[in-house]
Amino acid sequence: MGDESTTPSRRREITRNRLLDAAAQVFAEVGLDAASVETVCERAGFTRGAFYSNFASKEEMFLELAGRVAAERVGVVKARIAELERQGAFQTVPTDALAMVEQIIDISNEDRLGVLLMNEIRIHALRSPALAAAYVAQEVQMRAGVAQIIEDIAAAKGITFRVPADEAAALMLMAWESASVHAVMSGADKAQMTSLTSERLAAVARLIIDSPQS
Amino acid sequence: MGDESTTPSRRREITRNRLLDAAAQVFAEVGLDAASVETVCERAGFTRGAFYSNFASKEEMFLELAGRVAAERVGVVKARIAELERQGAFQTVPTDALAMVEQIIDISNEDRLGVLLMNEIRIHALRSPALAAAYVAQEVQMRAGVAQIIEDIAAAKGITFRVPADEAAALMLMAWESASVHAVMSGADKAQMTSLTSERLAAVARLIIDSPQS
DNA sequence: CGGTTTCGATACGGCACTGTATCCAGTACA
DNA sequence: TGTACTGGATACAGTGCCGTATCGAAACCG
Question: Most buried of the four, A42, A57, A83, A132, by CB within 10 Å?
Answer without folding.
Answer: A132
